[in-house]
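agent> Task received from the user: take the single chain below, predict its 3D structure, and emit structure tokens. No templates, no multimer pairing.
agent> Plan: (1) validate residues, (2) run structure prediction, (3) serialize to tokens, (4) report one or two observations.
agent> Step 1 OK, no nonstandard residues flagged.
tool_call: predict_structure(input=
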Amino acid sequence: MPNAAERDDVEQQLTTVAEALSLPSSTAQITRVRLNQLGSEPEIEDSSLSIVGATTLSLSAREDGLPITVSDVAEAWSETLEGTSIDPGAMTALFDDIAANLDIDGVPPEPRALIERFGTELDLPDGIVVVAKRILEDAFEADPQTIAGSTSPAGTAGAVLYLAAAVNDVDGADEDALGDVTDTSQVTVRNRYKELRDLLGEQHLETTQRYQLDPDTGAPMATSSAPDTESAPVETADDETSGEDPEATDKASADAPGEGEPETANADDESTPTAETAEVVTALFPDELPTTDRVAEELAADPEAIAADLETLVADGTVERKRAGSTDVWLPGDRDALGPDLTEDAVQREVDAIADELDLDASVRLFARGLVSDVVEAVDVEHAGELGGAALLAACRVNDVDVEASEIAATGEFAARALYDWLETLDSAVDIEIPTAGAETYVDRLADVLDLDESVREESVRAIEQYDPRPDDPSYTPPELAAGATVFAATVRGTGVELEQLAEASGADPAFISEATDSVLVSLCLDLVREDLDYEETGWTGDLLESELSPEFGDSETGAAIALAKAYAAGRESQPVDEATIDALVGR
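)
tool_result: status=success, residues=588
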């Protein structure tokens, strides 16, 4: 197992290599998280930690669709080592083992290989494949994060093939065909090529020699270096429409009234936008998550206006609304469920939104996203927020980050107690042990926050230890049970505690605290009367008769249990039973 010094060395090497290769910070960060996850795996522990680090970085770069080869990483990493170097072959030999240990579904293909494969499947000229690779490399040089930010390296490969073919007027690489061979969608390819076109500049793509095919031979034009990215147009306020589709612009010009002509209303003006909105929802689904913002982005329209259109479509049955955590998802009317991939996308959005709200660092966020993929297949999208919150809570606990369930719940539209159910689901589905905080831990926190007497803290812990719920009792979260036991202990000890204070300090709902209090009281009182608890060794029995616990406390069942316990204690103490207790016992 590597020691701390070796791990620190690899961390520094990773940082140096990422900077040398101009890799996005997100790629380096997920590699760090993965190296921590690998730990001491038997399949890889005999390998050099530097080779493991280089191989993991290469896998992460491939997953992000970055045009970085194994040799690129090996050469850059070797520069950080003294007296030795990394053989690219040693890295490729480790690919399968590391991918398996990281639960990566197969070794991702190298991005250039994807371009070659898709070009072959579409029977595109070899020259177009070469130009597509150049476009990918230049886009990476211009802005690595734009490449890494794609959710689909295959979509990026399709996009650069589309651009290469479009620049050279070559048929066979339309959106539909590329969507099919890349196993994404025409929408994904379209969005990606527009993003890359805007990054490099449309004029730059059309006029730069390295993107052209020789008209006589069909071979790529010779090139000695990548284009100067500074020559790409800089977007300004005046250029906001420069990226418009020329065909759409020509159509708009043709349809616009001539100078001096009055504008006339089109009978379809009101219905057309709504129909276009429905078409986009249908086009996006099931390859992408049709959220309001995503549909608005596709139509280059105001999200509020699109939301109104979508509501209209829901009313007439064309579209169905699904709630995905804090986000509305719009499905075509004949579909009422999302597949696992889109549900995972919805949960990941919730993870990111909550992490942003709580300002959690990237390692926690990435850890949470990794947990989600293990359980999402059987999850309904309506629970996206709860699962996302639970995954973050688990990630915080594993990484020793002090965040409570109540803090996570406060950022979303779900109750804190729901997170504990999902924590159990995660714990049973993943191989990682998720630390748990028991009710006793929360008692200590409540005692500190509310400055409770030590005797109340001790009695609360003892009550939790003695608590024996009946089979039909509901289960309570650790904060709820801790707060309920504290109410019991404070009351029997004659110390007042406000329910609202307990709720605020524990993050538990007051109603569930009251229910937990009743459950604890019934359990302890009946166990005392049944003599399952030793009267002499049960500290609270001496205070019971003088305490504010009475038959009027809690619900009717709780009151009856208290009455029984008081009558029993009175007999043990040779004291008379008070009238209220007698009334409760005889049903008056």
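agent> Step 4: summary for the user.
Confidence is low (pLDDT under 50) at residues 224-271.
agent> Done.
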